[in-house]
Specification:
With 322 residues, the protein is of the alpha+beta class. The protein is built from seven helices and seven strands, in the order E-E-E-H-H-E-E-E-E-H-H-H-H-H. Helix content is 55%, strand content 16%. Strand 6 and strand 7 form a beta hairpin.
C-alpha cells in the first residue's frame, strides 16, 4: 500500500499523487507498487525489499545518489483472549508481547520513502500529525525526526515493560503461578530483542553523525545528537531492566524449588505420623496370641494416641514449617 504525504503550512496532509518534496509511505508494497517506485523515482529494487525481510539487520548504505537506512522499530502487540475477545487495557489483563521489526528509510534527491512490512505506530504518528513541526520538504531533518520518534517509542515501551514486570512480581509474592512466570519470561525475551536492536541502531547513528553518508547541517546535527542520546539511554534502561528481570527469575526459581523441598519434607513427616497407628493396629490385628492386653481395645488406641501426639509435637516444632 502506497500513501503520499506532504507538509502544507504546519500540517502533514495526504496527497493523491507523487510530488517532489513529499513523503512516500510504503506498507507491505506489492510487486506493482515496487515497480512504480523503481520507475518513477529510480529507487533500487533491493533497497525497497530490504525492510520486507523480518530478519534484516540495521545498516546504512549509499548508492547512486540514494541513501538507505534500515533500522528496527519497537512493536507492542496485544494478544486476544481465548474467547476471541480482546483483553481490557489494564495490568490485570495485559498480555502484551514486545518485539522489533525492520523499517527502511530511503533518501532520494527529491523524496523520502519509508518501507515497512506492516502498519506501525511510527508511520501513523506522522501521518496523523501527532508529531508537530515536521516538514517533509526538509528531507534530512524529517528522517532524523523519524529516528527520534523511534527512540522515543523504545523508551515508552521500556517503561511499560518495567511497570508490567513490577506488577507480575507483586502477584508472584502472593502465589506462584505458571502464568506469571511465563509472562516474566516473555518480558525478558522482549528486553533481549530491544537491547540487540538498539545497539545496532546506535552503530548506524554514529556512522550518520560522522557526516560522510548524509550531509549534516547544524540544526540537523543537534537533532541527530538528541536521537543518539535517547538511544543510549534506552540501551542503558534495557540492560538494567534485563539484569533485574533475570535476577528476579532466578530468585523465584530458587523460591519455588525451596518450597517444593519443604512440601516434600512435610509430606514425609505426615506419612511417618500416619504409619505409627497403622503399625500398632497391625500388630493387634494379627491372628496370634501372647500380645499384652489383646482383649482391651483401649490399650492399642491409647498407645496409638500417645505416639500420634508425640509425632504431632515433633512435626509442629519442625524447622520445615519455618
Amino acid at each position: 500500500m502506497l500513501n503520499f504525504y506532504k507538509t502544507e503550512g504546519n500540517t502533514i496532509i495526504e496527497i493523491e499523487a507523487l510530488e517532489a518534496g513529499c513523503w512516500v509511505s510504503a506498507i507491505a508494497p506489492t510487486e506493482a507498487e515496487i515497480s512504480l517506485l523503481e520507475t518513477r523515482l529510480g529507487v533500487d529494487r533491493d533497497f525497497i525489499r530490504s525492510a520486507l525481510d523480518e530478519e534484516e539487520t540495521s545498516r546504512i548504505e549509499s548508492e547512486e545518489g540514494q541513501t538507505l537506512i534500515v533500522l528496527d522499530y519497537p512493536v507492542a502487540e496485544k494478544h486476544e483472549a481465548s474467547d476471541g475477545k480482546r483483553n481490557r487495557q489494564s495490568l490485570e489483563d495485559d498480555t502484551i508481547s514486545y518485539y522489533t521489526m525492520p523499517m527502511s528509510i530511503i533518501l532520494t534527491n527529491s523524496n523520502v520513502i519509508t518501507v515497512s512490512l506492516k502498519k506501525n505506530a511510527i508511520v501513523d504518528d506522522f501521518a496523523s500529525n501527532v508529531v508537530k513541526n515536521v516538514k517533509t520538504q526538509f528531507k534530512t531533518r524529517f528522517i532524523f525526526a523519524i529516528l527520534l520518534r523511534i527512540a522515543g517509542k523504545y523508551l515508552q515501551y521500556l517503561k511499560q515493560i518495567d511497570k508490567i514486570s513490577n506488577y507480575v512480581e507483586s502477584q508472584l509474592h502472593k502465589s506462584m503461578k505458571n502464568k506469571e512466570l511465563i509472562q516474566l519470561l516473555g518480558l525478558e525475551k522482549s528486553l533481549v530483542y530491544f537491547s540487540t536492536s538498539l545497539k545496532s541502531t546506535e552503530t548506524v547513528l554514529e556512522k550518520i553523525l560522522r557526516g560522510r553518508v548524509i550531509k549534516l547541517y547544524d540544526e540537523d546535527q543537534d537533532l541527530l545528537e538528541d536521537v543518539l542520546i535517547e538511544v543510549k539511554q534506552a540501551i542503558e534502561m534495557s540492560n538494567i531492566y534485563s539484569n533485574i528481570l533475570s535476577g528476579t527469575m532466578d530468585a523465584f526459581a530458587s523460591v519455588i524449588s525451596n518450597n517444593l523441598n519443604i512440601v516434600m519434607k512435610v509430606l514425609t513427616i505426615i506419612t511417618i505420623v500416619m504409619a505409627v497407628p497403622t503399625m500398632v493396629f497391625s500388630f493387634y490385628g494379627m491372628n496370634v496370641t501372647g500380645l499384652p492386653c489383646a482383649d482391651n481395645i483401649y490399650i492399642p488406641l491409647g498407645i496409638s494416641a500417645v505416639l500420634a501426639l508425640i509425632a504431632g509435637i515433633v512435626l509442629s516444632k519442625s524447622k520445615f514449617y519455618k
